[in-house]
Design brief:
Helix 7 packs across helix 10. The protein has 446 residues and is an alpha+beta fold. A hairpin with a 2-residue loop joins strand 3 and strand 4. 39% of the residues lie in helices and 18% in strands.
């Protein structure tokens, strides 16, 4: 699994979010079996999940704050991105001394539809200082005018960059077609009016949402829990992190039906064109999520997928093909995307629609389903070598599943292996019978 976009404005999964969600038990690091993860809830409600990996040379921390784009208002979309950008500039608050982020530590801020995430990597000996820097970035950033203006400029640059990418534009607009009534769906997670957000609104949003009860810390690396646990409690415990009742999280978006009218956009200055096709999907904790994962892999993940076979092997009309299942709680969706030259755009779109329809009407073979299941599970095995990825997905399960998060984590591999061809076809009929389709036609600048 690769992450295609790592800018602070967007956390975008690349080839299959789902491949990193299959977490078989036990975990492996090289040839070593890892111990079971440790879970703890601090007295202030902050949740911690920890995985010890003695072979890891670093410690990775992924801090999630459970605040979604659906909690933004129509005239203030993008406030979460601005706050994360301001967190990147965080300096020690008064009374904290002059200790800075250790030079060997790396800090990265990211935003998804359902949460904001701060990712930190450091050497084990720098873990205490790195944790303090993480706390400042999350809960005590400089919310004054100068860093706010800088964040607005950064975000505006990111928005402009996405608008010139046919892949990003096709994906972003596809979500607006699938969830037209959701304010955070344009473009994708809400940046349309970011430069017009008022600083006082940003401060108020931070005060209401960045709370211990809404936070999950996921940690993986070469320090034992006997060292990590007390350090986390000292840094993020009672009195060090704001506490309160977070605003209610939005339920999965309902209401307006998806807009399935085909849409073609023109993007001058791009030599590449793109077609995105997708539909609303079940959320991560849904019983049918495993079937959706297998369906997505079968359709567009890897050389054995149907779209790869048709678009690359048989017709040779596409550059790249990817499939993605986004385990959002407010706007879960599945999509496939292919890039091509402008003169091949119509052929690519026709083939994608034909293969999607075939999956809905003709059951997949047992061999295809087995290949797709292995694709999902096999990709994750590669991710288990990466402390950052493991921390990210452990935290994601705890964030979405709350008290049952680890139950979902432990049972998903078993549920995946039970998926049968008829379940894949049923999921395709549910999700892709009338897909939304967005094509972006590249062309020379006038």
């Amino acid at each position: 699994m690769r992450r295609e976009q790592r800018g602070v404005g967007w956390w975008r999964p690349g080839l299959l979010w789902l491949v990193a969600i299959v977490l078989p038990t036990p975990l492996w690091a090289g040839s070593e079996v890892l111990p079971s993860p440790v879970q703890q809830r601090l007295d202030n409600g902050l949740r911690v999940v920890f995985q010890f990996d003695p072979a890891s040379p670093i410690v990775a921390v992924c801090a999630f704050v459970h605040t979604s784009a659906a909690q933004e208002t129509w005239n203030a979309t993008g406030v979460r991105q601005l706050l994360q950008l301001m967190g990147e500039q965080a300096r020690p608050p008064a009374g904290e001394g002059e200790s800075q982020l250790p030079p060997v530590a790396l800090l990265h801020m990211a935003v998804s539809r359902d949460y904001v995430e701060t990712i930190l990597r450091c050497l084990p000996e720098d873990f205490p200082d790195a944790l303090r820097r993480l706390r400042w970035a999350l809960f005590d950033p400089d919310l004054s005018q100068e860093p706010f203006r800088y964040a607005q400029q950064r975000l505006e640059q990111e928005v402009m960059a996405r608008q010139t990418s046919p892949v990003a534009l096709a994906q972003d607009v596809l979500v607006t077609r699938l969830y037209p009534q959701w304010p955070g769906s344009w473009p994708l997670i809400g940046v349309g009016t970011a430069t017009g957000v008022d600083l006082s609104y940003a401060r108020d949003f931070h005060r209401k949402h960045y709370l211990s009860d809404a936070t999950v810390l996921a940690i993986c690396g070469g320090l034992p829990w006997e060292t990590v646990g007390p350090e986390v409690a000292r840094t993020f415990g009672v009195g060090n992190v704001p506490r309160g009742t977070p605003p209610a999280l939005a339920a999965p978006v309902a209401g307006a039906e998806p807009n399935t009218e085909p849409l073609v956009l023109k993007l001058t200055g791009s030599e590449v064109s793109a077609v995105a096709l997708g539909g609303r999907a079940p959320a991560l904790e849904h019983p049918d999520y495993a079937a959706a994962a297998v369906m997505t892999a079968l359709l567009g993940a890897g050389r054995g997928s149907r779209l790869y076979q048709r678009l690359r092997e048989e017709q040779n009309v596409s550059y790249t093909i990817q499939a993605d299942l986004a385990p959002s709680q407010v706007c879960p969706y599945v999509f496939c995307l292919a890039t091509c030259s402008a003169d091949k755009l119509d052929a690519v779109r026709t083939t994608m629609l034909a293969e999607t329809a075939r999956l809905c009407t003709q059951p997949a073979s047992a061999e295809e389903v087995i290949r797709a299941r292995r694709m999902v599970a096999g990709q994750f095995l590669l991710q288990q070598q990466d402390a950052v990825s493991l921390a990210h997905f452990l935290g994601l399960f705890v964030l979405f599943g709350r008290d049952r998060g680890m139950d979902h984590w432990r049972s998903f591999a078993e549920r995946l292996n039970e998926v049968q061809p008829e379940q894949v076809q049923a999921m395709a009929r549910q999700v892709l019978t009338s897909p939304a389709v967005v094509a972006v036609r590249g062309g020379a600048s006038s």
